[in-house]
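Re-running the complex after MR caught last week's input typo. The corrected sequence lines follow. Everything else is unchanged.
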Amino acid sequence: MKLKKYIITPLLFSVLLLLASCIKDYDTQPEPTVAQRPLLTLLENNYSFSIFYQVIKRLGMDKMLNGTEAYTLLVPDDDAFALAGITPKTVSSVDTASLRKIIGYHIIKGALPYNKIPQTVDYRFTALTAQPVYFSVTLPDPNRTRPQLLHVNGITAKKTDVVASNGVIHVLEKVLTAPAASVKSILNNNPDYSLFVQALKQFGLFDQLDKAGLFVVLAPDNEVFMQNGIDESTLATLDTLTYKKFLFAPYVIPGKFFFRSDLDDAPLTGIGPKGVRGSDYLLQIDYYNFSFQLLPDKVDPFYFPNTVQFTSSDQLAFNGVVHGINNLLITPDYALKQ
Amino acid sequence: MKISQLIFLLPFLLSAAFSSCKKYELKPQVEDASYIRVFNNLTFTVDFLNNQQTPPFLTFLMDPELDADGVPNNAGIIGDYLGTRQLYSISYPINAGNSSTGNGTLNESGQPNPPLGYPQNYEYPGNAHVLTAPVINGFDLSSWAQISSGKHRIMFVVRPQSNTPFRDLGSVQRASILVDTTINLEKGEVYTLEVVSRDLDNGKYGLYVRKEEFIHKAFDENKLYAGFINLSGKRPEQSKYGTAFFFPDKVRINSTYNIFNDAASSSAGSYYHPLEGYDNTYYTTLSSKFDQSISYLPLPMLPQSAFFYQGVLRTYSPIVSVANQNTGTMPYISFNMLDADLPVTTPTGFKLNCWSDPAVFNNYTFRNPHTTPNLNLVINSNNQFKVYSTVNIFEMVYNRVYLMQIKRGIDHAPQN
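Corrected-run output:
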């Protein structure tokens, strides 16, 4: 009895303790779920991708998206196609060569889910058409709570990371437009910018715009000029002898490249001017309100800067971006040489 | 006590013996070691006007392994989550017990910063568990990691600010290599490696490697030493317009040793007066950047009594200035950095006050830092404050000064 009470029971208890002190294996983590369906099946089964799927079928690219090689598809959904005036009817009537150009610009080799995209703005990838596509992600900033978005050429992805077995789909709000030859050609080919082109020519700013260097051009259209009472004949009287260069110089920002969405994805954080400095002016950029103001160093004390906003932004070219704006930065009467 | 009662205890003793601790073998020392410490000096980040710049968040790779596409996927040493360095770094890891995340810091107004959602290290090795350098030339160098001497390939990769460790990043992310170079490390030498920007406007970056001379120099134990080095790249375009401060290409440095004037000071105001012979005294002109050798300015080590007032340790200056709060009372050194191309009489410059408390200094983040901790290192040992001299390397990067303070071994009390 004593033996049982004082020795066996405690011994059994200690053996139990010893057993419990054994090394514990790590918890086995569940295997990540692997997407089973290829890109093609995802496109086929998703009604909002019906136009994209129709194009893929028509171009005979379905085999490519059913294979093992990985692709990233930037898919504008049916609403986005409708916004661009593309309907199932147009898809069946347009020639395949131009369709291939449009769709090829929406496909990138390799799988690029959101968290594998470099954390920066305007990161350059190359589409199947060998043209550049720019990816921007919202930079983390603990002081601002912003949704983590993906922008492709400034166009917001409605939904990211639709994962397939052979790639990933990002759903875009709009159809991407392939880059134009140069910012000069964008301005030249749009008759709405004829007065702006004339102004740039008169101030000797236009010829540079087909060079390689990057440019951001803020382009007011003809209507803006007319609203300010400037027509072709008034414009012809404006020259650099009577007017300061900053009458038109701030519309061309050399060496920079940004989409409208970059203002929010990567706001200015550094020290220094909140905008672009020219030789005698500051083009102030309010990245909270997506607007611009021109602050010349020496100007009439009664000068009140116009607040200028984007209209048709993100017109992409190989050497820069053209952003339409809704007002003139400064009117000629403030830019007169004294 | 009855034996039976002892027997009752025996199983517990046995079980305790079985589950008792295990001694791990010490890691063998690296043969023919050299010692490295790595900093990320990138102070500016990406914004929409500077999208060619690199976000200052890196992974340090030594002896990287490349995959079939030539993209690094592993390395002999990985120093991950390498954020911009802290303004003050000491020669032994002071945050060894803390987490390496950037949480819990205060901004310049003394308000807590929002927490980061990802880990961040301020240097390598920092608080990584590695073998460190021994005491060399009387300096505690445990912030430097032991590695084998000889040739090593060094890479720095720009990584996203996220929780994903380097090896799990996407191949496009791992392929954004900022620096790829090979360096030769000599046996027994101490090296400081820093990622620097050489030209912010054009997005050019590089690696600055300094073979530390302080392990070979004979320093007087009763003197403070201060050396300056300019690690700023080309002056950015925007600095020409005078809207933001950037160090000029040639910097003239003057120093002042400030002593608290107890007689003149009251609650209404506090006054310092310069130590005789150290009143805005010319020290040096830095006319080149990224120098390898540093000329150290010897400054006097004041007697221990100068740091006490009526037996109580004098106070540091508050890091965050609060209205109606006086400055500290501790003796401190200040430096004035001026544009050497301007006439000597031009007073405007960058004034650096070395007057803060080192223990809490790095808890603050600064937009416009003009202070460093005090160069006299106060250490409490056995309930007694002792003031030790230090060797200080001030590294000027664009608009701020990083202080690397090298502390002597504390095996004996200072003699001053």
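None of the earlier attempt is carried over here. The mean pLDDT of chain B is 86. Chain B touches chain A through 51 residues (CB under 8 Å).
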